């Protein structure tokens, strides 16, 4: 016996609950929380895609066209630029992967939490979720800390390199008598 169109669309119907006490309010609150997790996850995914897209810009070429000739001559050697470009791309790939993973994890957690909460509410119970929000907070704090650490480490290296050049330049200058 072949199923009819009506039978096919009967399967995914949502259950109907009697609105006694705070049943409707609880389910609507659960739905709002689910949508908040979706927005959070999509925000991380969108940020990851934006970082990936901007990392594809060839900023070195753009800057070379804007700089005057004397500034181009004083720029770093080509091998130094290529090394810095590889390091930057590696950092960007790590950031993009972390953002996309965090976004995907938020979406998956939101889905599982939503359906778990619906099942619990059907049984008349509710279990608060502390670990999802705490986990997301830890991941975001870790990303911010890693970004700060990486930025400070690069600035310290740049400052040390400039000081070495200055010391070498000052060391080659003979004092006047």
TrEMBL record:
Coiled-coil stretches: none
A GO-annotated cellular component: plasma membrane
Record's bilayer topology term: Multi-pass membrane protein
Domain DUF202 span(s) in chain numbering: 25-120
InterPro entries, alphabetized: DUF202, IM_YidH-like
Pfam family, one: DUF202
Domain of life of the source: Eukaryota
Keyword Disulfide bond: no
Principal localisation: membrane
Membrane-traversing stretches: 94-116, 128-149
Protein name as annotated: DUF202 domain-containing protein
Lineage of the species this protein comes from: Eukaryota, Fungi, Dikarya, Ascomycota, Pezizomycotina
